[in-house]
Sequence to fold (157 residues):
Amino acid sequence: MAETGRIRVAKDKAQLVKDLTSSDGGTGPFQTFADVVVFAAALGAKHKKRVPLGEISKREPSPIRLEYFATMGHDVLIKLLGITETQDINILSLDEEQYETQRHHIFEEYANGGLEILQNELRGAVDYSERLLLIMSLERDKQDDGEEEFDLSKFLS
Fold:
Protein backbone atom coordinates (compact mmCIF):
# COMPACT_ATOMS: atom_id res chain seq x y z
CA MET A 1 0.00 0.00 0.00
CA ALA A 2 0.98 3.62 -0.37
CA GLU A 3 3.29 5.23 2.12
CA THR A 4 1.19 7.82 3.92
CA GLY A 5 2.15 11.35 2.96
CA ARG A 6 3.88 10.39 -0.29
CA ILE A 7 2.94 9.29 -3.81
CA ARG A 8 5.20 6.64 -5.28
CA VAL A 9 6.30 5.95 -8.86
CA ALA A 10 7.06 2.49 -10.27
CA LYS A 11 10.75 1.90 -10.85
CA ASP A 12 10.19 0.89 -14.49
CA LYS A 13 8.49 4.26 -15.19
CA ALA A 14 11.00 6.45 -13.28
CA GLN A 15 13.08 7.36 -16.33
CA LEU A 16 9.98 8.34 -18.29
CA VAL A 17 8.83 10.61 -15.44
CA LYS A 18 12.27 12.27 -15.39
CA ASP A 19 12.30 12.65 -19.18
CA LEU A 20 8.90 14.35 -19.13
CA THR A 21 10.08 17.12 -16.78
CA SER A 22 11.99 20.29 -17.54
CA SER A 23 13.82 20.27 -14.20
CA ASP A 24 17.60 19.70 -14.08
CA GLY A 25 18.04 20.93 -17.65
CA GLY A 26 15.50 18.52 -19.12
CA THR A 27 13.35 19.46 -22.10
CA GLY A 28 10.12 17.76 -21.04
CA PRO A 29 6.76 19.53 -21.14
CA PHE A 30 6.09 19.31 -17.37
CA GLN A 31 7.75 21.38 -14.66
CA THR A 32 7.64 18.86 -11.81
CA PHE A 33 7.40 15.13 -11.18
CA ALA A 34 4.04 15.79 -9.51
CA ASP A 35 2.72 17.38 -12.74
CA VAL A 36 3.72 14.30 -14.72
CA VAL A 37 2.10 11.94 -12.22
CA VAL A 38 -1.16 13.94 -12.16
CA PHE A 39 -1.35 14.00 -15.97
CA ALA A 40 -0.63 10.27 -16.08
CA ALA A 41 -3.30 9.53 -13.45
CA ALA A 42 -5.89 11.50 -15.42
CA LEU A 43 -4.89 9.64 -18.59
CA GLY A 44 -5.04 6.29 -16.80
CA ALA A 45 -8.49 7.12 -15.42
CA LYS A 46 -9.75 8.22 -18.83
CA HIS A 47 -8.68 4.89 -20.30
CA LYS A 48 -9.75 2.94 -17.18
CA LYS A 49 -6.21 1.62 -16.87
CA ARG A 50 -5.18 0.90 -13.30
CA VAL A 51 -1.86 -0.95 -12.98
CA PRO A 52 -0.16 -2.11 -9.73
CA LEU A 53 3.21 -0.46 -9.14
CA GLY A 54 5.46 -3.44 -8.54
CA GLU A 55 8.94 -2.25 -7.59
CA ILE A 56 9.05 1.35 -6.36
CA SER A 57 11.52 4.01 -7.50
CA LYS A 58 13.71 4.96 -4.53
CA ARG A 59 15.79 7.63 -6.25
CA GLU A 60 14.75 10.05 -9.00
CA PRO A 61 11.86 10.42 -8.62
CA SER A 62 11.69 9.35 -5.01
CA PRO A 63 8.21 9.19 -3.44
CA ILE A 64 6.65 12.65 -3.90
CA ARG A 65 5.36 14.47 -0.83
CA LEU A 66 1.63 15.19 -0.83
CA GLU A 67 2.27 18.84 -0.11
CA TYR A 68 3.38 19.27 -3.73
CA PHE A 69 0.03 17.98 -4.95
CA ALA A 70 -1.98 20.01 -2.43
CA THR A 71 -0.08 23.24 -3.18
CA MET A 72 -1.02 23.00 -6.85
CA GLY A 73 -4.60 21.87 -6.17
CA HIS A 74 -3.96 18.39 -7.58
CA ASP A 75 -5.11 16.71 -4.37
CA VAL A 76 -8.64 17.15 -5.73
CA LEU A 77 -7.88 14.58 -8.45
CA ILE A 78 -6.61 12.13 -5.82
CA LYS A 79 -9.89 12.50 -3.93
CA LEU A 80 -12.06 12.33 -7.06
CA LEU A 81 -10.39 9.14 -8.26
CA GLY A 82 -10.81 7.62 -4.79
CA ILE A 83 -14.51 8.35 -4.57
CA THR A 84 -15.16 7.36 -8.20
CA GLU A 85 -13.35 4.06 -7.79
CA THR A 86 -14.84 3.03 -4.43
CA GLN A 87 -18.26 4.72 -4.67
CA ASP A 88 -17.84 5.34 -0.94
CA ILE A 89 -17.96 8.88 0.49
CA ASN A 90 -15.97 7.68 3.52
CA ILE A 91 -12.85 7.53 1.32
CA LEU A 92 -12.69 11.33 1.77
CA SER A 93 -12.31 11.00 5.54
CA LEU A 94 -9.28 12.84 6.82
CA ASP A 95 -9.47 11.17 10.23
CA GLU A 96 -8.74 7.59 9.24
CA GLU A 97 -5.36 6.71 7.81
CA GLN A 98 -6.72 3.61 6.03
CA TYR A 99 -8.84 5.82 3.74
CA GLU A 100 -5.95 8.13 2.97
CA THR A 101 -3.77 5.13 2.16
CA GLN A 102 -6.49 3.69 -0.07
CA ARG A 103 -6.89 7.01 -1.95
CA HIS A 104 -3.16 7.21 -2.57
CA HIS A 105 -3.01 3.61 -3.71
CA ILE A 106 -5.81 4.15 -6.26
CA PHE A 107 -4.15 7.35 -7.53
CA GLU A 108 -0.75 5.64 -7.83
CA GLU A 109 -2.21 2.77 -9.84
CA TYR A 110 -4.04 5.09 -12.24
CA ALA A 111 -0.85 7.13 -12.63
CA ASN A 112 1.08 3.94 -13.35
CA GLY A 113 -1.52 2.92 -15.93
CA GLY A 114 -1.28 6.35 -17.55
CA LEU A 115 2.52 6.17 -17.57
CA GLU A 116 2.26 2.78 -19.28
CA ILE A 117 0.08 4.36 -21.98
CA LEU A 118 2.56 7.23 -22.33
CA GLN A 119 5.48 4.79 -22.57
CA ASN A 120 3.83 3.12 -25.56
CA GLU A 121 2.67 6.35 -27.20
CA LEU A 122 6.00 8.17 -26.76
CA ARG A 123 8.22 5.27 -27.85
CA GLY A 124 10.69 6.60 -30.43
CA ALA A 125 9.60 10.22 -30.06
CA VAL A 126 12.29 12.88 -30.14
CA ASP A 127 10.10 15.74 -28.93
CA TYR A 128 7.75 14.65 -26.15
CA SER A 129 5.89 17.97 -26.13
CA GLU A 130 4.98 17.68 -29.80
CA ARG A 131 3.88 14.05 -29.42
CA LEU A 132 1.75 14.86 -26.33
CA LEU A 133 0.06 17.67 -28.22
CA LEU A 134 -0.71 15.26 -31.05
CA ILE A 135 -2.13 12.67 -28.61
CA MET A 136 -4.34 15.28 -26.92
CA SER A 137 -5.52 16.63 -30.29
CA LEU A 138 -6.46 13.13 -31.42
CA GLU A 139 -8.37 12.55 -28.16
CA ARG A 140 -10.24 15.82 -28.60
CA ASP A 141 -11.08 14.93 -32.21
CA LYS A 142 -12.40 11.53 -31.08
CA GLN A 143 -14.73 13.27 -28.61
CA ASP A 144 -15.90 15.78 -31.23
CA ASP A 145 -16.60 13.02 -33.75
CA GLY A 146 -18.51 10.97 -31.19
CA GLU A 147 -20.94 13.78 -30.44
CA GLU A 148 -21.79 14.41 -34.08
CA GLU A 149 -22.21 10.78 -35.07
CA PHE A 150 -25.70 9.36 -35.35
CA ASP A 151 -25.95 6.17 -33.28
CA LEU A 152 -27.88 3.49 -35.15
CA SER A 153 -27.52 0.93 -32.35
CA LYS A 154 -30.66 2.20 -30.61
CA PHE A 155 -32.73 0.80 -33.49
CA LEU A 156 -31.42 -2.74 -32.94
CA SER A 157 -33.68 -5.05 -30.94
The helical segments are 14-19, 33-46, 66-71, 75-86, 97-122, 128-148. Strands lie at 6-7, 64-65. The mean pLDDT is 86. The chain has one domain: 6-155.
